[in-house]
Write a structure and sequence with these properties.
Layout lengths: L8 E5 L3 H10 L5 E6 L12 E4 L5 H8 L4 E4 L6 H9 L3 E2 L3 H8 L1 H10 L7 E4 L2 H5 L7 E5 L9 E4 L13 E5 L3 E11 L5 E3 L3 E6 L4 E7 L5 H18 L3 E10 L4 E7 L9 H4 L4 H9 L12 E8 L6 E2 L1 E3 L1 H5 L4 E5 L4 E2 L4 E9 L2 H14 L1 E3 L1
Parallel strand pairs: 1-2, 1-4, 2-3, 4-5
Antiparallel strand pairs: 6-9, 7-8, 7-9, 10-11, 10-12, 10-14, 12-13, 13-16, 14-15, 16-21, 17-20, 18-22, 19-21
Length: about 375
């Protein structure tokens, strides 16, 4: 393989904010970056060495893109896996591996993988028709998820009782037991081709109840040490079972009984790891690069308490983005603002994030609440 810090050309499928932050780290290693995205105004467009406008789901587009790079990675799972499998056969390195992307594109297959490998998860049932849904073995209330194309809270529906069925998805889906949980947590794990594995410390999450998006995240966790150790063990087990090369974000529930249940996984840098840029010795983006280039994995230890807030477009506003309150929050010590370069805002669109770091956990949380109340994305 060409030297990752010199003449190697890395292709990224997807030109959103995850790709943008990955490029910002790749610049430090002098990696040549080529990006494919269907949006001519994608956040990556001004940062990469070459930007290609095209569909991520079209076989020929993805195949031709991949033939002109040495390695392909992703920042979104909704890509043409057939093209990636062919590229892999022809010697192009594809990480995460196409078989893993194919598995994770289908939430039903993902759940079956958990069951087959003794990964703790909520009871579930695969549904292929409205009739099956009406005859389900999972008791009300439960969560229905589309098997494919659900993203950022979309494709998820809470079925409280029989009266909710008329609005349920009719496409292939899965239903799963509604978990009465204390905490939503996440562990990001990395694995390189040598089989080295490393996890980031547990992060605790709070979700926006309307958009079902991560809105507030803090690391390190204050959960009992044995709970954190179990969460990291589960994440490592999944990575080992998959034999993934790259980064894997593992989202979990901690239920009222203290049991950890895996919700979903994502084989790429993830929203639950943004705080690692300022909060940890190595960021999730650098760790992903180290993993796919088969380099030693970095030290994931926390530097400080870090709180991450997603900047979501405010309801009632749609159009050119205006960041109200930016000057006030930038006056605060330990506040780091990341804007994603999206010209237009709309309700709940991810427009950026803010990380707040402090040696005192409670002060970090206090400042984070101030940022949440002050910084608004309007138009």
């Amino acid at each position: 393989m060409k030297a990752f810090y010199g003449d190697l050309k890395l292709g990224i499928l997807g030109g959103g904010q995850l790709g943008r932050m990955l490029i910002q780290q790749a610049i430090n290693y002098n990696v040549n970056i080529k990006v494919l995205d269907p949006d001519r105004e994608a956040p990556c467009r001004k940062f990469c060495d070459e930007f290609v406008l095209g569909s991520l789901s079209d076989y020929e587009t993805v195949y031709n893109f991949g033939k002109k790079v040495d390695m392909v990675t992703i920042e979104i799972e909704k890509v043409n896996v057939d093209a990636l499998e062919q590229l892999e056969k022809e010697g192009v390195l594809v990480y995460p591996q196409p078989r893993i992307i194919r598995l994770i594109q289908d939430k039903g297959l993902q759940k079956q993988f958990f069951k087959e490998n003794d990964i703790p998860t909520a009871d579930f049932q695969i549904i292929s028709s409205p009739q099956q849904l009406r005859e389900s073995i999972i008791r009300f209330p439960y969560i229905q998820k589309l098997r494919r194309d659900g993203y950022d809270g979309k494709g998820v529906y809470k079925v409280v009782d029989e009266s909710y069925l008329y609005k349920a998805f009719t496409e292939p889906s899965l239903i799963e037991e509604l978990i009465d949980f204390d905490k939503e947590i996440a562990v990001i794990v990395a694995r390189n081709e040598k089989g080295d594995i490393s996890t980031f410390p547990v992060a605790e999450m709070e979700f926006n109840p309307q958009a079902n998006l991560v809105e507030f995240l803090i690391s390190p966790s204050t959960l009992p040490a044995q709970v954190q150790a179990e969460a990291e063990h589960i994440a490592k087990k999944i990575a080992e079972c998959l034999k993934i090369v790259g980064l894997l974000a593992v989202e979990m529930f901690l239920d009222k009984r203290g049991k950890i249940l895996v919700n979903e996984v994502a084989p790429r840098p993830h929203n639950s790891g943004h705080q690692t840029i300022e909060g940890n010795i190595v960021s999730q983006f650098e760790q992903h690069l180290r993993a796919i280039f088969n380099q030693p994995l970095g030290d994931t230890g926390n530097i400080n308490h870090a709180v991450m807030i997603n900047l979501l477009g405010e309801t009632g506003y749609q159009g050119p983005a205006v960041y109200k309150g930016l000057e006030q929050v930038l006056k605060c010590k330990g506040v780091y603002v990341h804007l994603y370069g999206k010209a237009l805002t709309k309700p709940f669109r991810k427009m950026g994030h803010v990380t707040i770091v402090d040696a005192d956990r409670e002060k970090a949380i206090e400042k984070a609440r101030y940022v949440q109340a002050t910084l608004k994305v309007i138009s």
